[in-house]
TrEMBL record:
This is Endonuclease/exonuclease/phosphatase family protein. The lineage of its organism: Bacteria, Bacillati, Actinomycetota, Actinomycetes, Streptosporangiales. InterPro entries: Endo/exonu/phosph_ase_sf (IPR036691), Endo/exonuclease/phosphatase (IPR005135). Residues 235-509 form the Endonuclease/exonuclease/phosphatase domain. Transmembrane segments: none annotated. GO terms for molecular function: endonuclease activity; exonuclease activity. It comes from Spongiactinospora rosea. Keywords: Endonuclease, Exonuclease, Hydrolase, Nuclease, Signal. Residues 1-29 form the signal peptide.
Amino acid sequence: MIKEARMRWLTPLALAVLVLLTTVTPASAEPEGTLTLASPVVRGGEAIEAAYGTPRPHATNWLGLYTDPGNGPVDQKYVGPSVRWVYVTEASGKAALPTDGLDPGNYIVFALAQDGYQWFAPPVKVRITSSAPLHFVTDSFDLRNARVLAPYQATVGGLVRGDTDGLAFRKIDGPRWVQVSADGRISGTPRLGDALRPRPLRVEARNARGETGTATVGIDVRPPGHKLVPELSTMSLNLWHGGGQVDNGREKQLRFLLKSDVDIVGLQETSPASTRELAESLGWDHHQVGTDLGVISRYPIVERRPPADGGPLSVATRVRVRLEPRQEVVVWNVHLGYTPYGPYDACFGKMTEEELLANEERSGRTPQIQAVLQEMRPDLAAAWRTPVLLTGDFNAASHLDWTPATRRCGYQGVPWPTSVLPEQVGLRDSYRVANRDPVADPGITWSPIYPVFTGGYGHDSHKGEPEPQDRIDFVYYKGPLRVTGSKTLVEGTPKAVPDHRGNEWTSDHAAVLTTFKTAWF
């Protein structure tokens, strides 16, 4: 869910600015000011020292730090929130941007005018290096499955953080068939005995300073005649502006994904680079669509749908994942429109069912899901052979949760179109298959960090009231898959906004994880 009223604490920008009501000079004009950095490389925890100058000083001129690539206003328009910012009010001067809690990597500083996004000086790039000791993001994790007598490859090279200068890997202990190269590649060809007598792999990483980190790595070796992936784990995860709203977000995301032992993840709010960066660190395959949607997969993506250029299908993407030659699965991933938001209209606005459904249409969600399901028709028709998954942030509730038993906000039931329509074409809500009672298992995904309503959306009079908590993230399926479990996930006990920066959990949504028994072939 993207909610502009909830992003006011993220930047120095008022809601009016978020919709770009502030204009200084035409965006095509060359910026007249200057911006320089004391150093192009900064060690994590040290401030980025900047010097600036402008012939148009203003009390609300500001510097914004963004990941590169990321949410930065490269076209002098709002894309997403900065990770750090500071006002620069004089005609010239110096300013410092803190880097505490930021992931190592490439960033860019934008000099922006009057609480808006027009540049008053050309942006400058900077790299933040790590000051942390060398370590694996988690000390125990599993890699993709291996097959007896089939060549195997994976990598742990992207799962180390800290000072990675001169980084090299080696095998400490483990199965004889496994080799570990200096760059972290895992390879070899297992034999039958490796399936019958599995052993964990121990890997060491060492940097140029002599610091070391170790991890225990599991590889499930599958015998001949057995499925390579007997149980498939699928997740829907909203990254919340790529994960940059929480300190050390990328490392925490990686730790969470490894701990979850998931195979395929539909991502929303990815920013331009998060899908690729997560996949490369994990050694997985990926597909990125624009700045919002992505899919990452432990197993190869063999078919990718090109992004739609506008219209209702621009909120969806599709991939085909090959688990092995005769095992494939089609994955659709969506991020539907966010406003007006149905639970607000119901719980605060007390609208009639007719009014609620009219607003679902106005939000774009109803035409979006209709267009996506129409586009899915060939895949759904072939689902008996190749299973189909539909993951996503639907920004809408489910009719399976708004029932006479739950009486949410006093309603006996609401036929929310984004859940009714998938059901009508044969898709099943995996969470409700595994957890049939919405009273006992509400499965709330919005929101672990917004316990109270923060205003906006025509309901400001309800600001400070309890946030309508609801299930708006889903994993649907059709085909020869059997649900073995489904749950919502967060890490730790997240603190509410605005005290969220130190959370272990990196999103404003809970994730949904469903495991399936693969019943085909």
